[in-house]
Amino acid sequence: MNPCNLIDMLRNRGLISHIAHENSLNEIIQNHFISLYCGFDPTDDSLHIGHLLPLITLKRFQIAGHRPIVLIGGATSLIGDPSFKKKERIFCSNKNINLWTEKISKQISYFLDFNCGDNSACLLNNNIWFNKINILSFLRDVGKHFSINTMINRTAVKQRIIRPDQGISFTEFSYNLLQAYDFFILHEKYQVLLQIGGADQWGNISSGMHLIYRRNRKKVFGLTIPLLIQSNGIKFGKTESGTVWLNAKKTSPYKFYQFWMNIEDTNVYDFLKMFTFIDILEINQREKERHIGNNVMYDKSCLAKNITELVHGKEQLLSVERITHFLFSKQHIYLKESDFEQLKQDGIPSVQVKYIKDLQDALVYTSLAQSRTHAKNMIISNSISINRQKIRKNHIFNNQDKLFGKFTLLSRGKKHHSLLCW
């Protein structure tokens, strides 16, 4: 067995919010390889960075020799988990759920090893058993083990019940039983002993543990991972401009990378522990030396690179690094056409143009200048560049300015950019 104490490692990395029967679980995973699972409901066509910690935690268990099972909620996503939601979800169609299941299953496959022998990861869908279940049997065999009094006193449910403008439907209320049944089935058919999830899943995980004990008199385990909340109170992964997705077509690798570069300095070392596989002793040493020179920015860059490569791969990380050097360093870097496509997607402000009179007009059109006079003064003061080349007088655009025949980068100083897309 792996001599590493996995539970201690997870706690030292800040990855445990709740844990049930810790001593028993610790003893079992120290002496045996187990199967564990985490569920993901396909409620959109991509996972987002809020899903990263559960996936990374599954990966940590697999590295230690345990078998991770990913359960796609093809059935439960038709209901929608009400946990700590302010209002009921909009119901998804079967067609969308089937399409989204295919897409997020592919994303998940990048994180875990599905071909490594006895602890190969396994991907399942709970519609396998829910499509066959009889409602009367479910109410008799599952529902009878749950007290309404207990269920309505769960924090996630109580918060909705006390809101007269929203309340909670019976449909959502039943979700807790459905997820409990998932754990029960996985325990019976796949010998799953542990369910993990975000801290908001503790009530659902506890219900699964309860059902298995009531029906089989077997002790199983639950572990939740902290939910990350930003200083502005917004759930981690959400920004003013929207969710940070793992799908490169929804959030480009460059924007993904920049998200991590822009986190608060106070979070850098906690996130290095939680999101990367860098040795914790090295991270602790880096934290001690954070005030030396520009170490925090270097360590933030290390975090961004690690997570970008984990999610998008080495090739996309190299693209991100090219773009970053092109925009922010003095080095002369040549970008690929695909790099400019990332910038056009969401990397920097971009505008579609057919004809522009001159540079002054372009600066006004891209909002880099307030007026032609303002633009003229900036050009004279040597603060404007075209494709990283300083411009000292008004300029008429020509084909040489159009990289790959369609992109021109305008810059004001070092930090303000706009992309002309011809």
UniProtKB/TrEMBL annotation:
Residues that, per the record, bind ATP: K238
Binding site for L-tyrosine: Y37, Y175, Q179
GO biological process terms, semicolon-separated: tyrosyl-tRNA aminoacylation
Keywords linked to the UniProt accession: Aminoacyl-tRNA synthetase, ATP-binding, Cytoplasm, Ligase, Nucleotide-binding, Protein biosynthesis, RNA-binding
Keyword Aminoacyl-tRNA synthetase recorded: yes
EC number: 6.1.1.1
Chief location of this protein within or outside the cell: cytoplasm
Location of the Tyrosine--tRNA ligase SYY-like C-terminal domain: 339-419
Entries under PROSITE patterns matching the protein: S4 (PS50889)
Catalytic activity: tRNA(Tyr) + L-tyrosine + ATP = L-tyrosyl-tRNA(Tyr) + AMP + diphosphate + H(+)
Pfam families: SYY_C-terminal (PF22421), tRNA-synt_1b (PF00579)
UniProt signal peptide: none
Localization annotation: Cytoplasm
CDD domains in alphabetical order: TyrRS_core
Motif placement: 'KMSKS' region: 235-239
Enzyme class: ligase
CC terms in the record's Gene Ontology section: cytosol
GO molecular function: ATP binding; protein homodimerization activity; RNA binding; tyrosine-tRNA ligase activity
HAMAP family on file: Tyr_tRNA_synth_type1
Subunit structure: Homodimer.
Function, as annotated: Catalyzes the attachment of tyrosine to tRNA(Tyr) in a two-step reaction: tyrosine is first activated by ATP to form Tyr-AMP and then transferred to the acceptor end of tRNA(Tyr).
Family indicated by similarity: Belongs to the class-I aminoacyl-tRNA synthetase family. TyrS type 1 subfamily.
The protein's name: Tyrosine--tRNA ligase
Organism: Buchnera aphidicola str. Ua (Uroleucon ambrosiae)
